[in-house]
Design brief:
With 186 residues, the protein is of the alpha/beta class. Helix content is 45%, strand content 15%. The chain has one domain: Glutaredoxin, CATH 3.40.30. The chain has a six-stranded mixed beta sheet with strand order 1-4-3-2-5-6.
Length: 186
């Protein structure tokens, strides 16, 4: 029993160390955004978002590559709620590198995601930025100049979403203590 406990502590420590390293590496880094034309899932509904793009103080950038189950990774029902609640306060930038573009667009339409998305078939966004391989760290809260102020995928961790919301609403500074971020993300 004691050996199992030590193993669990060591795994948790390893996760915290990985998180700390990634957070330190990415906070303050500028994300380079390629010039990729966005795609509409539903043109009629997407127009309400286009006129407001790039006027907000913050952006949430989600990159999803073609590995694994795209639908499982995306959790579109949660993103839809975030968009509905915050599209007037934050720009959402969804970059997808799908295995099958038609299947992705069909899934987005079925889930009624009417926000503009970017199809990055050649992985240009990742090539420019060399994102972490862990999908948990392929989502970023950016300021107006594309500088990372927080990192982590809020659909996988409610604490990350709470952190994003507090920053967006001005309740906490973007100059947070890294230990606080790591504790909330672990």
């Amino acid at each position: 029993m004691f050996i199992v406990s030590i193993g669990l502590i060591a795994c948790k420590d390893k996760k915290i160390i990985e998180t700390e390293y990634i957070v330190k590496e990415w906070i303050g880094k500028t994300i380079r955004i390629p010039n990729i034309k966005f795609t509409y899932v539903s043109i009629k509904d997407s127009l309400k978002y286009i006129s407001k793009t790039n006027i907000n103080k913050y952006k949430i950038l989600l990159y999803t590559d073609s590995t694994g189950c795209t639908e499982c990774k995306l959790q579109l029902h949660i993103w839809k709620t975030y968009i509905d609640d915050f599209h007037s306060k934050v720009d959402f930038l969804f970059y997808f590198q799908p295995k099958n573009e038609k299947m992705l667009l069909s899934m987005l339409k079925y889930k009624q995601i009417d926000y503009p998305i970017y199809i990055d078939n050649i992985g240009e966004l990742n090539k420019l930025n060399n994102f972490p391989t862990n999908p948990m760290f392929q989502c970023f809260l950016l300021d107006k100049n594309n500088i990372v102020v927080a990192i982590g995928n809020p659909v996988n961790n409610q604490s990350v979403w709470e952190l994003y919301k507090k920053i967006i609403m001005g309740q906490i500074s973007t100059e947070l203590n890294i230990k606080y971020k790591i504790k909330k993300m672990s």
